[in-house]
Amino acid sequence: MSDQIILNLMMLSPLVLHLIGLTIAIMVDPYVSRKHRGILLVITELILSLVLQGQLDYNLKLHANIQQRVVVDTYGYIMRPIVLALFFHVSNDKSRNTVPVWILVGINTIVFLVSAFTGIAFSITPQNTFQRGPLGYTCHIISIVLLFALLFQTIREKSRDGVSGSFIPTMNVLLVVGSIFADYHFGRLDTPVSFLTIAMCSAAVFYYVWLHLRFVREHEEDLRAQQRIRIMISQIQPHFMFNTLSTIQALCRIDPEKAFETTEKFGTYLRNNIESLNKSELIPLRKELEHTKIYADIEMIRFPRIRVEYYIEDEDFNLPTLTIQPLVENAIRHGVRGRNDGRVIVATRKVDGFHEVMIRDNGKGFNAENIDELEASHIGLRNVRDRIESMCDGEMEIESYPDRGTTITLAIPE
């Protein structure tokens, strides 16, 4: 008997420690939402109670306590469909079609509560043996229906999460189905833990990992959205808007046709900046150059001594939106605006497996040793560098010398 007790403890201890560790992880995870954290905690504690229920049922079987065994077994049959229903909630973000799920759970609960007094689902004989009643497979049938609903939900969510995103929920469904088959095929072995309890414990861990990965991805998407907002705000500078409108106002008196053309370009410039909020993917170089040229044309109207020239040898590649334009704006604002012959060159070429974009000016230059300290005064340099590195696996190099000008080179792998 002592060997059997040791064996039981060896089976129970890993599951209990597993669930305690999962509880702690769920509570401290900053990525899982409050709603899903609450559901996962309930699932974990219910599975822990089922582990303890199995041990208690095993002890009562040995000590022939019939009434207590009826109560303990009733609890187990009621709780298992509830756990499956909660798994359904975890995989269903919008909580659609959950009323039928809980109706099935309610039917199962009523059947086994009534069975505790009537034996319609199961009974414990005076010899302390389990005897199944006419509705004895209610829990199994309802669990299978819930599993199919869970599998259907997983397939429906596949279009949003992709194949990899639906792998863990699908695996959990198959795991639970396999455990039900194993319990039915092998019968209840002389152990306090069923295959289904072990499968539910593993499924809880896998669902937690799945949710964690999903919320990390959503968090990163939120960060990218915030970054795009910061980019737009940094590009639509109040002084540029005010000065452009002042230029248009002056042109209305001396050159109405030029004023009309400038107004049209300014409207296109603003529209392109706003549209960039909805573009998290890379865009063709051609689109970025179009936006850059619109900005540069407006600046050259305001400052006739400035010239922006383009030498495009390579244009068959993509890059993040608002990449070249802020660098040209930086070159104009902080480099060539005070020059009598200010010149900014935008050039592209293919070099050693890289698409190279170069923005060069003959302005006053600056100290480029610490780019992070330049962010406040030089528009978007760090922002452009970070997006080139994260979205293209590329690099940005800055060479600048006082009174000689600045060269910024972007290297994007083919």
Q: Which structural category do the helix and sheet elements fall into?
A: alpha+beta
- Proportion of beta-strand residues: 5-15%
Low-confidence stretches: none
CA-CA gap between termini: 69 Å
Principal-axis shape: elongated
Work out the number of β strands. 9
Q: Note the total helix count.
A: 11
The CATH architecture of the largest domain can be given as Up-down Bundle
Radius of gyration: 33 Å
> Quick check: average pLDDT?
79
Classified by CATH, the class of the largest domain is Mainly Alpha
Total domain modules: 2
List the helices and strands and how they pair.
Blueprint: H1 2-28, H2 34-63, H3 66-91, H4 99-118, E1 122-124, E2 130-132, H5 138-186, H6 195-235, H7 238-254, H8 256-275, E3 283-284, H9 285-302, E4 307-312, E5 318-319, H10 324-336, E6 343-351, E7 354-361, H11 381-392, E8 395-401, E9 405-413
Parallel strand pairs: 4-6
Antiparallel strand pairs: 1-2, 3-5, 6-7, 7-9, 8-9
Helix pairs in contact: 1-2, 1-6, 2-3, 2-6, 3-4, 3-5, 3-6, 4-5, 5-6, 7-8, 8-9, 9-10
